[in-house]
């Protein structure tokens, strides 16, 4: 049975704002609503942990190291970004689009194997292709270009409110605390195992 919600009810996201003033264009039982709920729970858990422990990751405003990493997002997260881009001016959208096209050409030239994997990957694949791609990227570390949604002037995310979960989670635990193998998360987080010990467990969100 679909849960009824009126325009004046609190929004499903848990913000405390009225539904009509926050996510009125999103059905409370949709995949989009579930994603928003997950994001909010995740952020609250991280915020509560940081306040109670004082353990703050190096991921603060002004650092955009992770924008040069490979990362994947879900279809619904992509739709969220496109939804926000629809509110932009035509010139601004075209600028982002042109930047993305230029970056595609760079990938073709600098990482032809990666581009080939992107062309042949299908959603129903078992993940082998993506796993192999990420394994190869570990030897590359950073791309020569950032995410096209990084504002070149402010060095901030231009779709911050619609950013994917992977972006919201950067700086939280990447590896299990009992994992013995150390890897460098980024130049500011050199040891994944030590970092896991001072970040919250969010797998239950």
TrEMBL record:
<protein>
    <recommendedName>
        <fullName>YkgJ family cysteine cluster protein</fullName>
    </recommendedName>
</protein>
<dbReference type="InterPro" id="IPR004027">
    <property type="entry name" value="SEC_C_motif"/>
</dbReference>
<dbReference type="Pfam" id="PF03692">
    <property type="entry name" value="CxxCxxCC"/>
</dbReference>
<dbReference type="Pfam" id="PF02810">
    <property type="entry name" value="SEC-C"/>
</dbReference>
<dbReference type="InterPro" id="IPR005358">
    <property type="entry name" value="Puta_zinc/iron-chelating_dom"/>
</dbReference>
């Amino acid at each position: 049975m679909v849960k009824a919600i009126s325009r004046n009810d609190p929004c499903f996201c848990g913000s405390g704002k009225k539904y009509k003033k926050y996510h009125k264009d999103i059905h409370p039982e949709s995949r989009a609503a579930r994603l928003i709920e997950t994001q909010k729970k995740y952020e609250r858990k991280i915020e509560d942990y940081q306040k109670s422990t004082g353990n703050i990751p190096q991921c603060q405003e002004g650092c955009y190291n992770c924008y040069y990493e490979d990362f994947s997002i879900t279809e619904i997260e992509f739709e969220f970004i496109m939804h926000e881009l629809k509110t932009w001016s035509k010139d601004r959208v075209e600028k982002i689009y042109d930047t993305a096209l230029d970056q595609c050409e760079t990938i073709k030239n600098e990482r032809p194997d990666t581009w080939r994997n992107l062309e042949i990957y299908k959603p129903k694949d078992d993940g082998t292709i993506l796993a192999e791609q990420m394994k190869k990227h570990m030897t590359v570390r950073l791309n020569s270009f950032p995410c096209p949604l990084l504002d070149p002037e402010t060095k901030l995310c231009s779709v911050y409110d619609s950013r994917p979960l992977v972006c919201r989670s950067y700086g939280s635990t990447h590896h299990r605390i009992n994992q013995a193998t150390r890897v460098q998360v980024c130049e500011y987080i050199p040891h994944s195992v030590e970092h896991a010990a001072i970040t919250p467990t969010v797998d239950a969100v």
